[in-house]
């Protein structure tokens, strides 16, 4: 029977209700499946295998076998496959967007945007694959010679979240494959179909069997995470998700001393100085705060506005947010879809702030008539540091505005959290922009823009936001190890 999620696609064969192991679409050996729901309606839209550690081990072995040959292909050849993959994602952008909307809920524009964002990593790393250069270094002795090779680390375990079900996988996968590694991807149980499309298109792009494997699971996720960490065959884990789970994976990886990339939680400060252009600041806040209904790890969470600009900024922000339309993501007039999960936390942060005398400027309630996971786009004023939203990441559509007086004060408040992923600074003063970005304890600073992510720039955090960098010329490094080759006893005497 065709699953509901395939309805309306130009190419229904993009949907597969299986795991992908060693070039085959397979059920779990346990024969168990789990159901996937549309967050807008709560309706079941398909099922996927509830994979066990036995299934996972099959995928690890397939990746290990495939590594023997994949690593030996010239980077140029690996790059050609990645380039074809890029083309296929772009060609299937609309179908991919529909699938993302059906399982994640995000609005059509965000969903198709995610398809293109995903594709951009295949294009970028297709170009990096042939340019993984080592070094020749001068040795300390006259008879010694040294060269440094960059080699693929081996089989990589990737664990990705539901908020960007294709892009978070693509950013890791394309870098790993460019480096010459092979991959086992554990997709998120809420959004497995989008990750499976990566495998469908990878096969069409000419990827050899076993190089990329996808294992689906919902309830067995912790067991699979543990098995990936404890496997000696898996040499690296790359994870995107919460700080809580990142720390758990790090603990679990201690016995096998794995290389780790951890892209974890954020709590981004968005700082508006008195000299900022109000329209630029508002447009940037809208882009950063409300993207994917507030469910990105780089979403502005704490909006610090200097006293002199507070009134005009808050007024213009509310006017612009009012123009948005919340609804079912597939409706092309809708700008913001439902939350995928965790609507309770948004509601809790709003109620906590209101109970402590924040001012409700817009929204503030569930939109239960639309479905179980809809919440109004919300703006709160006069927020202070005692409120939960100032210390915890909401991961929802709540813009919390708080006033500040001085540069020193706002830096101290912005840096007061334990995480450090994205931050934003709105100012027209060059000196302020340099000083503040150098003092912010965050992996990324955006000045006069609300958009940080780009395939050409390194993405990642400091402090409890994790380690490693994705995208950019640095992104491949996370999947490489250095090998030193020293040659001694070279006779360096020669006659003219
Ligand atoms: N830094 C980034 O790039 C980035 C990107 C997206 C989301 N995030 C963060 O993720 C959080 C929101 O997502 P969430 O709450 O669903 O996060 P989460 O950590 O609960 O889930 C993320 C992924 O981890 C899996 N997972 C959960 N428990 C696991 C375990 N024991 N072993 C292995 N895998 C496990 C989940 O199935 C999911 O695929 C936010 O804090 C957000 O900031 C960070
Ligand atoms: O949610 C995490 C990453 C999103 C992005 O790269 O913009």
From TrEMBL:
The EC number(s) this enzyme carries: 1.2.1.16
Tagged with keyword Lipoprotein: no
Annotated Aldehyde dehydrogenase domain residues: 25-485
GO CC annotations on file: cytoplasm
Superkingdom to which the source organism belongs: Eukaryota
Family to which the UniProt record says this protein belongs: Belongs to the aldehyde dehydrogenase family.
Protein name: succinate-semialdehyde dehydrogenase [NAD(P)(+)]
């Amino acid at each position: 029977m065709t699953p509901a999620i395939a309805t309306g696609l130009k190419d229904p064969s993009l949907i597969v209700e299986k795991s992908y192991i060693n070039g085959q679409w397979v059920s779990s050996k346990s024969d168990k499946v789990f159901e996937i729901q549309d967050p807008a309606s709560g309706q079941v839209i398909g099922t996927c295998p509830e994979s066990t550690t036995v299934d996972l081990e099959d995928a690890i072995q397939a990746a290990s076998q495939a590594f023997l040959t994949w690593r030996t292909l010239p980077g140029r050849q690996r790059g050609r496959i990645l380039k074809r993959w890029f083309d296929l994602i772009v060609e299937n952008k609309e179908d991919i967007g529909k699938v993302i909307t059906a399982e994640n809920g995000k609005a059509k524009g965000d969903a198709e945007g995610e398809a293109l964002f995903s594709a951009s990593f295949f294009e970028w790393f297709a170009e990096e694959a042939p340019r993984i250069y080592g070094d020749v270094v001068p040795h300390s002795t006259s008879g010694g010679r040294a060269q440094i090779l960059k080699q693929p680390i081996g089989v990589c375990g990737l664990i990705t979240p539901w908020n960007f079900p294709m892009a978070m996988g693509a950013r890791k996968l394309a870098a790993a494959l460019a480096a010459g590694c092979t991959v086992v991807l554990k997709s998120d149980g809420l959004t497995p179909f989008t990750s499976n499309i990566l495998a469908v298109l990878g096969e069409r792009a000419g990827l050899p069997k076993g190089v990329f494997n996808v294992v689906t699971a919902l309830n067995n996720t912790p067991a699979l995470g543990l098995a990936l960490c404890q496997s000696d065959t898996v040499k690296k884990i790359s994870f995107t998700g919460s700080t809580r789970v990142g720390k758990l994976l790090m603990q679990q990886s201690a016995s096998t001393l794995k290389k780790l990339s951890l892209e974890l939680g954020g709590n981004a400060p968005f700082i508006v100085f008195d000299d900022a252009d109000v329209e630029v600041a508002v447009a940037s806040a809208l882009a950063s705060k409300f993207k994917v209904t507030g469910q990105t790890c780089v979403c502005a969470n704490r909006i610090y506005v200097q006293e002199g600009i507070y009134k005009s900024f808050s007024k213009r922000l509310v006017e612009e947010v009012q123009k948005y339309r919340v609804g079912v993501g597939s409706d092309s007039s809708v700008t913001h879809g439902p939350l995928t999960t965790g609507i309770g936390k948004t509601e809790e942060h709003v109620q906590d702030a209101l109970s402590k005398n924040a001012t409700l400027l817009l929204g503030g309630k569930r939109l239960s008539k639309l479905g179980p996971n809809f919440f109004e786009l919300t703006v709160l004023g006069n927020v202070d540091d005692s409120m939960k939203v100032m210390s915890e990441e909401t991961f929802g559509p709540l813009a919390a505005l708080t006033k500040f007086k001085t540069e020193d004060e706002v830096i101290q408040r912005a840096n007061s959290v334990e995480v450090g992923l994205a931050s934003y600074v709105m100012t027209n003063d060059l000196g302020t922009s340099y000083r503040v970005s150098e003092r912010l304890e965050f992996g990324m600073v955006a000045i006069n823009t609300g958009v940080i992510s780009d395939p050409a720039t390194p993405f990642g955090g400091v402090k409890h936001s994790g380690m490693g960098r994705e995208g950019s010329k640095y992104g491949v490094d996370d999947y490489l190890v250095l090998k030193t080759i020293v040659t001694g006893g070279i006779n360096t005497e020669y006659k003219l």
